[in-house]
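Re: that backbone. Tokens:
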């Protein structure tokens, strides 16, 4: 069964063909980073316009790379939400039209369920088996949320079966990726912030942290997250210490010259700035890992799944590897390409939904705040 997946919820126009929910035959992603970079974040109007430009060539490319014709597709899976409404509508309208014209079923997919399936796609490729129930952390520029993932099939292990989700915790303010992006912006390190801060934090540097960020304590649900206080703490620290001003100015100048690579920005960072970035990342990683592990230990699950753009973070991966090992639990990540938004994960999620008989009719509409549980 070959499913064409279509994803357009944020700033990536993506299409992919996945066989039997597991084998990626093609995966094409057109990123809009260059368009949104000068605004330091995704501009919804520009995103919709760009999806409109990209959707037809991206789908054609995915079909061609899979060595297929559109008429060989068995079903179409499309992201229904959550995301930007104008962006979602482009994929949905195109998916609906294609399904009608080809006479194929259209399967609506929750973008977050796609991120969960990105982990299964990778595990399958590596010949590893995830055990359900599991705890899944989805951590990106738009989401930071913890789910219990279950299946209702007889032995409780089949990730091809329709999955059930129970939300255990979520961010009360900014997503973790958003915090990375905002901190990078205020430090004059460009957009998106995650990849550059990840590399700068890893630079061996024995300077003491210029400020300490303790663990965030949450009233109410202890599995909730909060990152806006941390971002504000970085902002206040930088504002109150004038020695950062000059180097930030020099980095911003470099960015306007198009010099945004790690190798170009590193020489413009003082040891103090590097230590500040390290301390920020320590705080983010500690909160993500500790909450996820406490959810996993509370439920007694054997698998921890981590997905979304921030799952590409090297320190997050290393810390999860360490913590799960000592807890006797296994951790699963998608590859870096499957961590960020893509359509293979949408096609994979569509497969189990299709098998469960979930098919949309022509009234399907975008749902910008579609819930998973
Ligand atoms: O999943 P994604 O591509 O799009 C959203 O759905 O948001 O995630 C993008 C986010 C951005 O905030 C970016 O800064 C962050 O993921 N990110 C990272 C890393 N790579 C991307 N954050 C931390 N470390 C990274 N290596
Ligand atoms: Zn996403």
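Recovered sequence:
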């Amino acid at each position: 069964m070959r499913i064409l997946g279509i994803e357009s919820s944020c700033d990536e126009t993506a299409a992919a063909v996945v066989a039997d929910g597991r084998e990626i035959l093609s995966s094409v992603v057109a990123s809009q980073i260059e368009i949104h970079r000068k605004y330091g974040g995704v501009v919804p109007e520009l995103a919709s316009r760009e999806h409109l430009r990209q959707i037809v060539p991206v789908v054609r490319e995915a079909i061609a790379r899979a060595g297929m014709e559109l008429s060989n597709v068995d079903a179409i899976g499309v992201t229904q939400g959550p995301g930007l409404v104008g962006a979602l509508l482009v994929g949905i309208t195109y998916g609906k039209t294609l399904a009608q014209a080809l006479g194929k079923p259209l399967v609506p997919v929750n973008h977050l369920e796609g991120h969960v399936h990105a982990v299964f796609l990778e595990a399958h490729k590596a010949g590893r088996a995830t055990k359900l129930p599991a705890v899944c952390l989805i951590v990106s520029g738009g989401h930071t949320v913890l789910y219990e993932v279950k299946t209702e099939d007889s032995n409780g292990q089949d990730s091809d079966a329709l999955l059930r989700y129970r939300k255990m915790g979520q961010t009360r303010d900014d997503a973790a990726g958003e915090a990375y992006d905002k901190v990078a912006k205020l430090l004059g390190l460009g957009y998106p912030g995650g990849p550059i801060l990840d590399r700068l934090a890893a630079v061996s540097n024995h300077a003491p942290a210029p400020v300490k960020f303790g663990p965030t304590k949450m009233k109410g649900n202890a599995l909730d997250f909060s990152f806006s206080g941390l971002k504000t703490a970085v902002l206040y620290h930088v504002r109150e210490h004038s020695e950062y001003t000059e180097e930030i100015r020099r980095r911003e100048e470099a960015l306007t010259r198009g010099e945004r690579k790690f190798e170009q920005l590193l020489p413009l960072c003082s040891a103090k700035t590097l230590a500040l970035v390290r301390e920020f990342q320590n705080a983010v990683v500690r909160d993500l890992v500790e909450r996820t592990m406490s959810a996993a230990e509370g439920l007694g699950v054997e698998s921890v799944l981590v997905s979304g753009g921030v799952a590409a973070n090297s320190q997050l991966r290393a810390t999860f590897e360490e913590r799960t090992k000592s807890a006797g639990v296994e951790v699963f990540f998608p590859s870096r390409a499957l961590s960020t938004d893509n359509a293979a994960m949408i096609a994979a999620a569509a497969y189990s939904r299709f098998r469960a008989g979930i098919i949309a009719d022509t009234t399907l509409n975008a749902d910008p705040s579609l819930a998973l549980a």
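Residues 176-287 form a domain with the Nucleotidyltransferase; domain 5 fold (CATH 3.30.420.40). The beta strands are 2-7, 12-19, 23-31, 75-81, 106-110, 134-139, 144-151, 163-170, 303-307, 330-332.
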